[in-house]
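**Protein fold record**
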Amino acid sequence: MPPGIKSLLGLGLNYCIQTPKPSNELDKTIERFKTDVRRVSFFVHNPPEENEKDADTITYIPELYIKDTWEPPKSVDPDVEKCIESFEHDLRLQQSRYNIPRPSNLQPRQWELSSTLKFNDMFIAIEADKNLGGCFLLRDTYIKRGVKEHLGNTSVYKPLSQQQAKNLLRIINRKMSIFISKRQDDLSAAEFHFLWESMHKYADNMARFRMSLKAHKTPWKMRPIVCCAGTALNNLSRWLDYWLQKLKPFIPTYIRDSTQLLEQLQQLGPLPPGAKIFTADANSMYTNICTDHAIEMISMWLDTLKSDLPEGFPLEAVKEAMEIVMRNNLFEWGDMHFLQLLGTAMGTSAACMWATIYFACHEIMTLIPKYGRYLLIFKRFIDDMLGIWIDDGTPNAWENFKADTNNFGILTWEFEEPSQSVDFLDLTIIIERNRIITRTYQKALNLYQYIMPQSNHPPRMMKGIIYSLMRNYHRQNTKYKDYKSMATKLFHRHVNRGWDRSTMKDWIISADEKIQQEQNEQPTSASTESEEPVSNKERVFLHFEYHKNDIPKSRVRAIYDKNCKELLSTRLGIKQLTIAYSRPKNIKDTITKAKLHQAPGHEASKYYSGEQTSP
């Protein structure tokens, strides 16, 4: 193992790297600012005609956004262009004064490792499940595990030659092109624009296979992941997910997260005698959903909802998109290419809702009608099931429920028997004196790699993180002593990560006071007028990559106020400048890689064929 790897991984994958000099590329910052101002100027001087503001105008849908390639021309108002030039001149001049080399927040050895690990021929860095940090494996072991545990299963993954993969990608693109043309009448202008632009922008991109480590399992295993971002097929999957999300109100077992579950548990009141809690975990849910069965069941369920579906729901287009997305999950791994034959198309945007809806069909059609009288509450978060079972003495009711749960396609579930206490998501749920109480659950292997003070994060952000964690603990812990215990642990864990004791104490106390104040506030009947939000026509952005030693936000705003504020407000109606900071690269960005790096002579195909068995 390379020296220094433990100290590097110990920083945490979210540790943001501070380069010796500010890493912000000012050219890109200025160009984006110019584009924003010129866009507003163009539409101020070229307002759309009334007849253009109809259904054919592209309407913005946040979930289906794709960056437009249109570049607005220079403003016809010479004063606007002059103020932009003045702003650019002053900003470059002032920023240059901060462009002075200072020590990085990495030690020299850590810096070297972070720069070279992605392409190390012997080792590979990957992420562990369940917030267990970064892991370091022999690249040889990683590839062999990928073949043995996943890609070597030819009933699930079909290997393809490079030419076969290219031909299949063209066929998939053709299917999507036909879909877009055939379903144009079912699509809004925004949806059509999104899908059509995706086809042109991402047609040649292929998904990448990688794995994370199930370090919490004994023995440890690998979790398969397909990185589909930036592919045309995934954008069709994004469109599919956009519509599947609208079906959540029709799924009685659906929960968004543990916060929503808490709200429902708190409404239960006293429990009847004999009530116990149970949980169940699906066995490899994604790969154990038969595609044929899923398409059949989901389509059948959608047909039963036909008269109740949301307005404009493109039923037949959704069915067709399911076929295309779930049957064409093509990806590369090193020098190999595969087509997923069975299960949910891993990594695609619609995967979670697809899997959720699939088993909901069984819950709605069989489990709830047959066993509803035994289930005081019955909820599921994708592949994690929770219920409160009422035992009324009926023989074999519980065993029959488990058997029927496992009688749906090839998907099976592992049950924990009903008891007085269970761990579910980030909650421990307990029945005490016939009432539900909860407390925060954290896995025993959790490393608690909270952001360190040396990390290149905005200082004010940390106070918000502490408040958010404290608010979660307050919601999750029925008893004050448990909430207090979590707050104490939060304090000590952050101090162990290097935070100043006094500062952390002040932030935690401040968060608690704010939470108590919010809890005690009574809603007022008098309506108060609030300012209307600023629209995109009235706001411009200045995008910076954050760096602790870069020009401060206050100085940037002063330069804008001096050169642009009054003129852009009076001439173009721009009311606000938003300085938007993006996150700099963190440890995860620099040491992990979606595309598999292969050492010469150690290609994935050699391990797959058995030609290569050792480093």
Summary: The two ends are 14 Å apart (CA to CA). Residues 229 and 381 are 23 Å apart (CA to CA).
